[in-house]
Structures
1.
Amino acid sequence: MGIAERKEKQKQDIKKMILDASMKLFIEEGFEHVTMRKIADLIEYSPTTVYLYFKDKNEIFFHLHELGFQKMLEMNSNLPEIKNPLMRLYKMGENYINFGMQNQEFYDVMFIQHAPMDALAQMENCDWSLGDTAIGALQVLLQECMEKGLIQKAPVEAVAMAIWGMVHGLVSLAIRDRMNKLVPKEKLVSTMHTSLNWLLGTIDNSFNKE
Amino acid sequence: MGIAERKEKQKQDIKKMILDASMKLFIEEGFEHVTMRKIADLIEYSPTTVYLYFKDKNEIFFHLHELGFQKMLEMNSNLPEIKNPLMRLYKMGENYINFGMQNQEFYDVMFIQHAPMDALAQMENCDWSLGDTAIGALQVLLQECMEKGLIQKAPVEAVAMAIWGMVHGLVSLAIRDRMNKLVPKEKLVSTMHTSLNWLLGTIDNSFNKE
DNA sequence: TTGGTAAATTAACGGTGTTAAGTATTTTTA
DNA sequence: TAAAAATACTTAACACCGTTAATTTACCAA
């Protein structure tokens, strides 16, 4: 039955077209300018056709949010080659900030917008596995650092939340225009790195010993 | 001219009615359920009348965002009585987290939503003075702590950004449902306090000396 | 060729922010 | 006090939005 296969492939192709169009719209014009009608226009179908491939708009954003995590993962592909876990931690934080600031619309849908979480709440498997995996990786890394005596021992969960909280806080405040006056635009990213380095420096044992 | 005064007062009364209605709506039903028509319904005027008192919806949210800062300031009224600046810093952070978690819709419009900043961008005085004042207070406090040798010396701006970033990151991740699985709901606030205490503990000199 | 199925569309519903034009109402002036 | 001017408010409409029901078109199997 090659016919069924081809049909299935066509279906996947159109799904991809829809996601590509959505991505184009929200990268170029921003989240709030992504509308079902504009998506339909871009792929040259009627608006209702989109609903044959996705349950609703939230589901589309859920898929975009997944693509965002994929992109983020690619950005972290330079991590495994860093042997020193503490250096890996520094780099991980810097990657996070850079990813957020260079892909603001992706960051928005991954960590700020309600839409993908609303879609998630209506799925059978309601876990935010992508996010939980990411924070899990941070916890494992922190654990390794502590075991090797590179950073001060402390409850891993609390430290992980603190670090994630800080980098997310910096990026999301910047994205939502709350840092416009505090730091000049061109120094924003470098100041964030300074803050991150300060935080990691305070828990860095080699730093404190000196 | 008592008439002009009375008219002016009436005008202010209606403005207040509009803001009260908006506040009621967004506290009880959430930000996205605040619509011009619902506001008009609540105050029993036609939708267009609202535009005679506010330029647009963003301007209404700007005023709500101001009221949020006022509420936050009230919550910090217990700070001046704390003589030890380091203890004041702890309390300030805890207040921030508590305010955000107890007034999620206010927090949303103050630090996450675009609306008030969009309104600000179209005003003659484009400074986000409320936000900048708040972060300024944090910087002054940190400066005092450093001068008295209570915490390790470091660039004030970077440390302030790190602390603000962290508490904002924690609260905003929670508000936007990114911590549902990571921490059980009932332990969320206490875990945030743990993270904050961990961060401040690492820079607390009295803590490190022991 | 016909019948059935899958895919896509048209039309519509109820909502949104916002504006232009028109109607009351109130105040000022002659 | 009556007419004119200014103020306050409403009605109607525009151009959107997400979403659904009903309908048409395109395709494949017998």
2.
Amino acid sequence: MAGLRARQKADRNRRILEAAGDLFRQSGYDAARIEDIADRAQVSVGTFYNYYKNKGDLLLATVAMEVEEVLETGRSRLANPPGDVAAALTGLIRVYYDHSLNYLTKEMWRTAMSISIQHPETPFSRHYTELDARLSAQVSAMLRTLQLRGAVRADMDAAGMGEIVFNNLNQLFIHFVMDEEMTLADLNILIARQNAIVAGLIAGERSAESRPQGAEGAAE
Amino acid sequence: MAGLRARQKADRNRRILEAAGDLFRQSGYDAARIEDIADRAQVSVGTFYNYYKNKGDLLLATVAMEVEEVLETGRSRLANPPGDVAAALTGLIRVYYDHSLNYLTKEMWRTAMSISIQHPETPFSRHYTELDARLSAQVSAMLRTLQLRGAVRADMDAAGMGEIVFNNLNQLFIHFVMDEEMTLADLNILIARQNAIVAGLIAGERSAESRPQGAEGAAE
DNA sequence: CTTTAAAAATGAACCCGTTCAAGTTTTTTG
DNA sequence: CAAAAAACTTGAACGGGTTCATTTTTAAAG
């Protein structure tokens, strides 16, 4: 009987993950108590802490699964982006956005981001930050591809502009998860508007890109 | 004797704020216990909770003071921005950045952001989000001013582009406070680089703006 | 198969933010 | 000025995340 201990360990881990996902989605992160999660996973509270360093650490396991899936889907989009700059950007970004609520609630996203910001030195945060960096790199890579095709101005720093576009979409995503009323459709409209501006600015000289709209009044 | 109660109240509030600011800076937000803050302010724990709804609420009072000051300084920069687009953007943004560590530590910023994201419906978060919106509006206003002067392309949506620029600087600021090693100088270099890209893209046709650098290789 | 050692599970105890019933001080009323 | 009401202070008690000494289970050694 090779590895009874290992099997039991894997089993308990799976049960904890399942229980946590269920309870987080059902009652929310704050309301889901460690004791509840442990009970449902049929382990004691102490055992839970042998598997995860703390409650936040447990959330990462779930969030990370989601983001890995998004990265994989995004990768397949990099090879052949649409020729239209706005469409290419929006298409890639929608891959990210449209996956976002598959397994995670907005509250779970908020909590994950929140913990990541507050404790940047933890493995949780480092992992999360690294996933962000990889998403950002995908946007840069897409811009570079478009640039090599001539769809984007050759004199632009694609890597830097990719970061700007990613930072923008990331911030919009934060707004999205912070507003329970906001739908994915709303978010997509916002990002399409922003991307249209960017596309108008970076489109190659010869491309038939639609030029941006006129300016609105300013504030403050 | 008009308002003994009012004077005592103001006094206690001042003492609590001072004690909290001191302890947060000295020992960090997490390590500063409510009991310690209350002791130092010469009130009981119960009394503390008559003045602030919770620990995070107390942080807002400090953070808000800092941001209000930044907004005021920023306002004075709006009327007469430098003609150079990159210089105008970087100048405004440096007002924000250079003030940021006057009264607050990185850890305090992280905590404030963290709480704001996790509990968006609280007054704390609403206030913080509103301050962000006002900063964003300042960036938009500056772009609009430059546009009216002809330093920025007339066909650009200044309000939308202002949001993009703000989202970018905000995200960079998050990176900054998440990395204890990173200095303000490092941050300013990063934002100058990003702004140079933006400036190159949005500069008015006739302006003598420096064109952006060549593109780097892409990733992923 | 016993014995010994290592690994893991357990729940009571601890810490700290928050709440609340009871007590105290200030203000208002007559 | 006394009595009643209102406003405020207080610290003990509560809840939930986390820790740790102890016990139990599995693996290794003889």
